[in-house]
Design brief:
eight-stranded mixed beta sheet, nucleotidyltransferase, UDP N-Acetylglucosamine Acyltransferase, domain 1, alpha/beta, UTP-monosaccharide-1-phosphate uridylyltransferase, UDP-sugar_pyrophosphorylase, four-stranded parallel beta sheet, 3 domains, single chain, EC 2.7.7.64, 21 helices, transferase, Spore Coat Polysaccharide Biosynthesis Protein SpsA, Chain A
Length: 650
């Protein structure tokens, strides 16, 4: 609608032209006017300009006659005039960015740039924040706005991101922890450990758990009170020891690099946890901390940046999603550096899954055997289960490439209705979905990973998920933002890339800790998995019991659950096996040369740490064996009721 048809716009015209005629001369230089005018108004200015001067009344009349001149144009002019008035406060790059943002739908940010606020330096505060986000997002905030408008329109119109694709069961390998083929793949993976790098995505606080600290500081179990971060570092160091086992020359010993993605909330506490504990035995230069930033929140379908309520100079920001781990691996130069230094495989895992390292060597072995560029560790999935699934998406038209990727559960059933079984149905033989469940544990080939990040500047494809308050999808309930997920990385891969999965029993590789007791009780009643502190601890003990049973150790009373605060938790012997004792099944077997001579009762506690060999043991009590570095301990001909003081110290 043109200006002449809007009374509100007419008033705005008068306000803007009063601002333009600051010197009360009725004219303005064409050059100065062009600096504050939107690009598509330049032709109107050129029509009116004479001798490089513009008569403002003539310009106003010309604009009122144009149907394609809108009040949005006036907002931009008004914004740029306010920016001009605050120019003495700002650096040249801040002025430039402010003008650019005004041209890209953000003129509302400058409405409060008046003389009083300028005196208090408030415009400077806003521009420092905007310039920070502009510098950290590939392509700058203009690229962020451009992408947001496209994605918001797709969301509003209900566009299906998987339109034109048909799902098929992806290429992968099913592993059972107690089968021979697991051993084969684990041995292949052990041989690759010398070329491994590890990335922990640890941006979260424990608020959902009712805990105010960082999640990686939580204990896996209360027998030894080992926290997650220590446990992860211990595992990497144990893998490193295996990789260097037969290397005699110190110069040729490898250090397995470890990167941790933090957030603004978790960065300093993570640094403190590491420093207070001597980096848990890992050299400081072996660890890289990468702090994730946030992105501007969006208040409407025009991708207008949201400001905080009551403060127009404070930008609302939100997390960009855990897909930022790829942006950080690129911006810190780690992907390229690791690949050049000899790293072949990069494993990504999340902050509170204490079982993940049981599976990583075998998962690497599958990557080697199947030559996978991307390998998603997954678990068997029940139809209808609220968890994403790994699917192979085959295009109906040849213009698109095949895509093996995680499909979120809220999009999955609609996609699977295009298959012959017409939905998320169980396999007749297994009773499970043929599409394995995603647990966000990934193993990538390092070299193509670095190259793909170079091409995308570290950005994986983004999405928006606004919640609307109207049927027309024009009004948001609250501001949204662009998001990205680390498991969407395969979208960056070339068509020739081999992408697949490794599926393993849930008990062996996945037990998340993320819910408080109330939420865990409700979730357990729906899914059978409470995913809380007590279930995580119980699952860890159970996994260790099952590993011992798999190699022939007699473990009594396994397989029973007991409700703790209404949450079903596995009960049985509390078995803690440190990574320095056994970080793989092959190593575990060597620690029990005669497993048939080892018996553990259901009420026992067993802690094994370091170079310990168990030849003969009947345990009905507590046994804590810690071998200091360089020491070897052999347990033989031992019947134990209680060993070690009850406070748990040797």
């Amino acid at each position: 609608m043109g200006l002449a048809q809007s009374e509100e716009a007419k008033e705005q015209v008068e306000t803007v032209f009063r601002m333009l005629d600051m010197e009360r001369t009725g004219s303005m230089s064409a050059k100065d006017l062009a600096a504050v005018a939107p690009a598509d108004l330049k032709s109107v200015i050129d029509e009116v300009a004479k001798d490089e001067k513009v008569n403002l009344n003539e310009l106003k009349e010309a604009m009122m006659k144009k149907d394609d001149v809108t009040k949005e144009h006036l907002m931009i002019v008004s914004a740029k005039l306010r920016i001009q008035g605050c120019k003495p406060l700002l650096k040249p790059e801040e002025v430039k960015l402010a003008r650019t943002l005004a041209d890209h739908g953000q003129a509302h940010l400058f409405k409060s740039w008046d003389e009083n606020n300028a005196k208090e330096g408030k415009p400077k505060t806003l521009m420092v924040s905007l310039l920070n986000y502009h510098g950290k997002y590939p392509g700058g905030l203009t690229e962020y706005i451009k992408k947001a408008k496209v994605l918001l329109e797709s969301s509003r119109s209900g566009k299906n991101p998987f339109e034109g694709y048909k799902p098929e069961v992806p290429h992968g390998q099913q592993l059972n922890y107690t089968d021979k083929n697991f051993d084969e793949f684990e041995i292949k993976g052990i041989n690759e450990l010398k070329s491994a790098g590890f990335v922990l995505v640890a941006g979260g606080l424990g608020e959902r758990l009712g805990y105010g600290g960082i999640k990686v500081a939580l204990p896996l179990e209360i027998t030894t009170m080992t926290c997650y971060l220590k446990f992860y570092i211990d595992n990497i160091l144990a893998f490193q020891a295996l990789a260097n086992k037969d290397v005699t020359d110190t110069k040729h010993k490898v250090k397995l690099p470890f990167a941790i993605m933090t957030s603004g909330d978790t960065h300093e506490p993570t640094v403190k946890l590491l420093e207070d504990n001597g980096y848990f035995g890992m050299p400081k230069d072996q660890i890289t901390l990468m702090q994730q930033d946030k992105v501007p929140a969006l208040s409407n379908n025009d991708a207008a940046f949201a400001v905080k309520k009551g403060d127009p100079f404070a930008l609302q920001t939100k997390p960009h999603g855990h897909g930022d781990v790829h942006l950080l691996m690129h911006s810190h130069g780690l992907a390229k550096k690791w690949a050049k230094s000899g790293v072949k495989w990069i494993s990504f895992f999340q902050d509170t899954n204490g079982l993940v390292f049981n599976a990583l060597p075998a998962c690497m072995g599958v990557s080697v055997a199947l030559d996978l560029e991307v390998n998603s560790l997954s678990v068997p999935r029940k139809p209808g289960e609220a968890v994403g699934a790994i699917c192979k998406l085959v295009p109906e038209k040849t213009s698109k490439n095949e895509l093996t990727i995680n499909v979120e559960y809220n999009q999955l059933d609609a996609l699977l209705k295009t298959t012959p079984v017409k939905g998320d149905a169980a396999d007749t033989k297994t009773g499970l979905s043929p599409y394995p469940g995603n647990i966000n544990v990934l193993v990538f080939k390092a070299e193509p990973y670095a190259k793909n990040l170079d091409k995308s500047n570290g950005i994986v494809p983004e999405f928006v998920n606004p919640k609307y308050s109207d049927k027309e999808k024009k009004i948001f309930k609250k501001p949204t933002r662009l998001e990205c997920m680390m498991q969407d990385y395969p979208r960056l891969c070339e068509a020739k890339a081999k992408i697949g999965f490794t599926s393993m029993e849930r008990w062996a590789c996945f037990s998340a800790v993320k819910n408080n007791t109330t939420d865990a009780k409700a979730k357990a009643s729906k899914t059978g998995f409470g995913e809380s502190g007590c279930t995580g601890e119980g699952d860890l003990y159970r996994a260790n019991r099952k590993k011992l049973a798999a190699i022939g150790v007699s473990v009594d009373g396994d397989g029973k659950k007991e409700n703790i605060l209404g949450i079903p938790c596995w009960q049985g012997a509390r078995v803690c096996l440190s990574p320095s004792f056994a970080s793989t099944m092959q190593q575990l077997k060597s620690r029990f040369p005669t497993p048939d001579k080892v018996k553990i009762s259901a009420t026992s506690t067993l802690v094994l740490d370091g170079d310990v060999t168990i030849k003969n043991l009947e345990l009905d009590g507590a046994l804590i064996v810690v071998a200091q570095p360089g020491a070897q301990v052999v347990v033989d001909e031992t019947k134990v009721g209680w060993v070690g003081p009850k406070d748990g110290h040797m």
